[in-house]
């Protein structure tokens, strides 16, 4: 209750003075002074004066009394007003007290809620810290795994480098071996050349011997022919002589029966006949000698043939010997190289261990290659997983930093709230103190002024309290909203994390499935499996096996034919020799006849085929010539590097000279024009450049040439 | 070879088919030489892909491979060829010892629309060279074929392909427990060839 002092009335200075001076008004204790001693002034006047003074004083007093009464009434009304106001203020104070109590309760409740919020925030911060720790642990584990994988990758790389080094060493050794083998090859080549020279010399010698033998054989053949002729003549002569001899002997016998009838003429005849006989005997002996010579020549021939055969066998054996020597040298070199390899290779003691070692090395390399491939695939998988984990870690770090920031903000908010709370409590204490003061003032003072100031103070403090309470309420509301928002964000983040984890797992599963499918498909593909609905497998009918079998049978038949021909020749020779002695086997002529028949049929067939082929090819050639206007001559040749090529020489039917010929070379599907005098002519070379080199068309070139030569011919 | 401009970079379907079939021919010869299916003296050296390549002189094998490559070219131009497999079998037991696999992927757009692609011939040659080197080096880690062997070629084609009269349908001649080794691949931008081989474990 604020006591107000009414405003002092402004009076006139006179009245003010009188009022002021009046003792009643001033409420001063004025000592009543008796009437002042009368002076020499007139006593009646003094009586009148005092009466007047008394009257004045009385009137003044009455006026003052009235005024005082009025004031009193006013004061009483004021007091009543003040009292009412005071009671109002008391009511208000009570209300404010109640409000303060309720506010205090609310403050306590908000404190409790803030405390709970703080605890919740702390819990959430703790949870996020735990999650962060878990994430950090996971990251550490992943880093350890990554380090392990990196180490295994390094080990694999080391093993790869070591395998590469080993392979390089082996390659180096192989190169060295190849170099040494090349050197030895060169040495062997030189030796071979020497041997070839020696063999050439020996072959020349043998050829010279052969020629000598041939000449001798020819001479002996000629001699034998002459001797044969002589022999035949002599045989004829001998037969005649024998006939004559038989006739003569008959005659001699008849003459011997009639001996007395012999005359000198008969003696002469006999002598003559004896001389003739002697001559004939001499001739027979000569014939026998010739026959023996003939037999000798035939023996010589046989010997020659035998020696020829022996020479051929010797040559073949020489070549075989050379090959065997080469083979032996190669084997020795291989042995040396294998021995050196044995010495160089570890864990190998015998030659039989080398293939096993090589097989083991091959298997090892294949396995290492497979392992390397698998580790590479595994590495890639781990790299992908690591990238994902790193992304997750980064996301988790971001989230944790966000949560930390939020927690820090929440803590700051809490502190701010605490500060506000403290300020509110301070204000509440102030209000309490003021209320106490008010109550004290109420008890102590019932004046107007102090209550008024107190009331004003109370009102201002109440207004301030209300404002602070509003601020607190708004802050609380904001904090609640912030906390709700944080909560919602956390939920969203958790949901996102869980969905992404699920996605990652599903992706990993899909990736594994796809990889297994890919490996299965690759294995199937490599294995040769195929879809029957889309694919069919074909192979050529005339395989090489069939061709080879036919070839083998043909070659076998040819070899048999040759053998039978050789046998036939030998038998014919034997037959020619044994005609005189008649040493003939009974079954051979039949076999000979059969073989001869077979040979005749085969030869006839061959001739028929040749004839048919010749006919067909001539018809084809003529048709080609007539249709395309070129005579084509085909010739198989070999290039200097040994590659077989087919040469075609084309001459136009409209050519004006025989020199106008084009030459082409055909090799494995490619046809090239060869240069000659005709093709180097400017017109022809120009056409070659245009049609063959630029347009890559030989038919166009030949057609153009045909037309030009036809035009030339017709115009000429 | 493919149609060439002055820059030698344009590849048509026909050119690509010729490159692939020629590659198969030389690969088959190289495999036959390196695996010792035919004696060494029956091969001659030629220069191809910047390497000394060996070609058989056996007339039967030559004609067989020539006929094969011509048919493969036809199928490749039609885009019907999926795979070519060179099978090495034991002559005595007909057991499949090795399968040399040449998988082919054809760009369907080129087959349907006749689109032209561009790739440097040198690059294609380099890729083929790498495969040839690998085939030649396979002798270092493959086991020796001690017994006499024969070879056959299988062609995996589309189901709708008309079977020529010199070809018949066959089984795939698979290996029971194969061990697979992948080699390099080459790509003409129209067709790509992936090489690998299987042998029994």
From TrEMBL, chain A:
Q: Which UniProt keywords apply?
A: Cell cycle, Cell division, Coiled coil, Mitosis, Nucleus
| Stretches assigned to coiled coil | 58-113, 160-341, 372-612
Task: Identify the Pfam families for this entry.
Answer: MAD
Q: What is this protein called?
A: Mitotic checkpoint protein
Q: Which GO terms describe its cellular component?
A: kinetochore; mitotic spindle; nuclear envelope
Organism field: Musa troglodytarum
Source organism superkingdom: Eukaryota
Family, according to the entry, reads as follows: Belongs to the MAD1 family.
- Predominantly, its location class is nucleus
Locations listed in the record: Nucleus
Could you read off the lineage of the organism from its UniProt record? Eukaryota, Viridiplantae, Streptophyta, Embryophyta, Tracheophyta
Answer whether the UniProt record assigns the keyword Nucleotidyltransferase to this protein: no
GO BP, sorted A to Z? attachment of mitotic spindle microtubules to kinetochore; cell division; mitotic spindle assembly checkpoint signaling
From TrEMBL, chain B:
Similarity comment: Belongs to the MAD2 family.
Is Nucleus set as a keyword in this record? yes
Organism ancestry: Eukaryota, Viridiplantae, Streptophyta, Embryophyta, Tracheophyta
Keywords of the record, alphabetical order, are: Cell cycle, Cell division, Mitosis, Nucleus
The organism's superkingdom is given as Eukaryota
State where it is primarily located: nucleus
Tell whether DNA-binding is among the UniProt keywords: no
- UniProt-listed SUPFAM superfamilies: The spindle assembly checkpoint protein mad2 (SSF56019)
PANTHER family attached to this UniProt entry: MITOTIC SPINDLE ASSEMBLY CHECKPOINT PROTEIN MAD2, MITOTIC SPINDLE ASSEMBLY CHECKPOINT PROTEIN MAD2A
* GO CC annotation terms, alphabetical: cytoplasm; kinetochore; nucleoplasm
Any one Gene Ontology BP term: cell division
Role: Required for the execution of the mitotic checkpoint which monitors the process of kinetochore-spindle attachment and delays the onset of anaphase when this process is not complete. It inhibits the activity of the anaphase promoting complex by sequestering CDC20 until all chromosomes are aligned at the metaphase plate.
PROSITE patterns per record = HORMA
Which residue intervals define the domain HORMA in the entry?
A: 14-197
Where in or outside the cell it occurs: the entry states:
Nucleus
Q: Which InterPro entries match?
A: HORMA_dom, HORMA_dom_sf, Mad2-like
The name under which this protein is listed is Mitotic spindle checkpoint protein MAD2
